[in-house]
Design brief:
Elements (H helix, E strand, L loop, with lengths): L11 H24 L7 H15 L28 H15 L1 H5 L6 H9 L2 H6 L5 E4 L15 E5 L2 E12 L6 E7 L9 E7 L5 E6 L10 E12 L16 H35 L15 H28 L5 H25 L1 H5 L5 H9 L8 H13 L8
Parallel strand pairs: 1-4
Antiparallel strand pairs: 2-3, 3-7, 4-5, 6-7
Helix pairs in contact: 1-3, 3-7, 3-8, 5-7, 7-8, 7-9, 7-11, 8-9, 9-11, 9-12
Keywords: FAD, Flavoprotein, Oxidoreductase
Pfam families: Acyl-CoA_dh_1 (PF00441), Acyl-CoA_dh_M (PF02770)
Family: Belongs to the acyl-CoA dehydrogenase family.
Length: 407
């Protein structure tokens, strides 16, 4: 099957619009909300309303959170055709928005990571019922780190409701979102197969935001600790099937990560691209030109470094596109999603910090956004699974080993 690496024509208007938004709406307020940590960026309300309008008209495929579906209904029909769908459009538009500002993208109403969880796991009735909500996603707990299988938050069925108890930390948009997707276990003795996700509306008795975190970067985005104490939610709010299938294991929950990891890769790709673009311009102003037709060792050291970073960026970009394209075409993409997240997370952080270094005092000062992008990009190598976790997942997939066989 032939593969084209050009941007699909039908998505070019969307990508162009996202770039214009990044340049004209996000960049101008980027420094303002970096300094005003925890202050809600009110300018985003108008932008979110624009995206909602496009969604209702069907003109923005991919601008919102898309999901990766599994199962027989989602099996790809071998008709010789390919589809460029919502997942590919999402990563392309998100990369452009993060060329503007990662923290502001993460603060966008109704575009939370929990929305991707709903899109990936919810049944048709739930997808319709939760359409239009702004959902944060609560996974991480004190002591569990990136090992989501060790979740201790419990969900106990009591009549027509589940009772949730536990503590979640580092919940992106945890204070601003109107719903939280909470991962909890139905039975700890059954391991990862018993972990399910629940949609909890804000204001539900027993759920409270305990504190907001002060962070290195993405300061425009609120990051919350949320406590659940005998928090009761309707049993219909358990996403997907309530059945515990030990043969399926963690697959239901991992379908969410198969979707969100390429999105995080897109954030890193966009932020790194911003740093490369500005660094190239600043180097040109200093008399350093980059020549792609000459070997690196015959050029200025800064030019050689930029060539190496651009090669790394291109690799991350292509892995991101591959993971999203596979999701659109109903192909298992867990390996590719982790590869994209691992590569983009690492090179995104490396590139933004190296750009600060190449630009010296200008890069380190607040005269430009380079130092901010270096701070913002670090989280993209951490959340949704750290670099080490991604490498572990990739190794398991390549070697055909289970999580019990390769820890």
């Amino acid at each position: 099957m032939a593969i084209s690496l050009e941007d699909p024509k039908k998505f070019r208007p969307l990508v162009s619009q996202a770039h214009q938004v990044a340049m004209n709406m996000l960049r101008p307020i980027s420094r303002k909300y970096d300094r005003a940590e925890h202050e809600y960026p009110k300018e985003l309300d108008m932008l979110a309303a624009m995206i909602d309008g496009l969604s209702e008209s069907g003109a923005n495929e991919g601008a919102g959170a898309a999901g990766v579906r599994r199962g027989e209904d989602g099996a790809k029909k071998d008709d010789g055709g390919v589809k460029n769908g919502a997942n590919l459009a999402s990563v392309m538009s998100i990369a452009e928005m993060c060329w503007g500002d990662v923290g502001l993208l993460l603060s966008m109403p109704r575009q939370g990571l929990g929305n991707s969880a709903i899109a990936s796991v919810a049944n048709d009735e739930q997808a319709e019922r939760f359409a239009g909500v702004w959902a944060g996603m609560a996974i991480t707990e004190p002591g569990t780190g990136s090992d989501s299988a060790n979740i201790t938050t419990t969900a106990v069925l009591d009549g027509d409701e589940y009772v949730l108890n536990g503590e979640k930390i580092y919940v992106t948009a945890g204070d601003r979102a109107d719903h939280i997707v909470v991962w909890a276990t139905l039975d700890r003795s059954l391991g990862r197969a018993a972990i399910k996700s629940f949609v909890v509306p804000k204001g539900t008795p027993g759920m409270r935001v305990d504190r907001l975190e002060h962070k290195l970067g993405i300061k425009a985005s609120d990051t919350a600790t949320i406590i659940f104490e005998n928090c009761r939610v309707p049993k219909e709010n358990l996403l997907g099937s309530p059945e515990i299938d030990t043969k399926q294991g963690f697959a239901g929950a991992m379908a969410t990560f198969d979707n969100t990891r390429p999105l995080v890769a897109a954030m890193a790709v966009g932020c790194a691209r911003a740093a490369l673009d500005l660094t190239r311009s600043l180097l040109a102003d200093a008399g350093v030109t980059v020549d792609h037709d000459r070997p690196a060792h015959l050029q200025h050291a800064a030019a050689a470094k930029l060539l190496q970073m651009e090669a790394d960026w291109e690799a991350a970009h292509l892995l991101m596109l591959q993971a999203a394209w596979m999701a659109d075409n109903r192909r298992p993409n867990s390996l590719e999603a982790s590869m994209a997240k691992a590569k983009a997370g690492r090179v995104g952080s490396d590139i933004t910090l190296s750009c600060v270094e190449l630009c010296g005092s200008v890069g380190y000062s607040e005269a430009e956004l380079l130092e901010k992008w270096a701070r913002d990009s670090k989280i993209l190598d951490i959340f949704e699974g750290t670099q080490q976790i991604q490498q572990l997942i990739v190794a398991r997939r390549v070697l055909g080993l289970s999580s019990a066989e390769l820890k």
